[in-house]
Amino acid sequence: MSTAEFNAIVEDFEFIDDWEDRYRYIIEKGKNMPILDDALKVEATKVDGCASQVWMHPTIENNIFYFDGDSDAIIVRGLISLLKSLYNGVPLSDVLKIDAVIELERLGLTEHLSSQRSNGLNAMVNRIKKIVKSELTNQ
Predict the structure, then answer these.
(1) Are 107 and 10 in contact (CB under 8 A)?
(2) CATH number, domain at 62?
């Protein structure tokens, strides 16, 4: 299960053979992402388990999940952008059904990210799931 936006990225990756070009693509996605307001870069939005500084600010509108994020590392900004394309606009009840590992494997990321980056990516996914579980519990 994934969004049309994420599927479009998967299709783009099918045409990009070289991993350096794929990294550039991910970095460009991060550069094009809006910068998170400094007022939202607080302890409550900080993601633990990432080597770099990462912040995720969720918004839930009409039971639809959205988040904005930022990082001090440009490749991580790109990874945040990928996660936004995977999760933003998804009904809360469907967010937990998304298997980020399987979806991101469609991009071939698992074998090309360092263990530190993979751990950080998992921390971001776990943060999304925690936010959604908490919201669903409080409904």
Answers:
(1) yes
(2) 3.90.1010.10
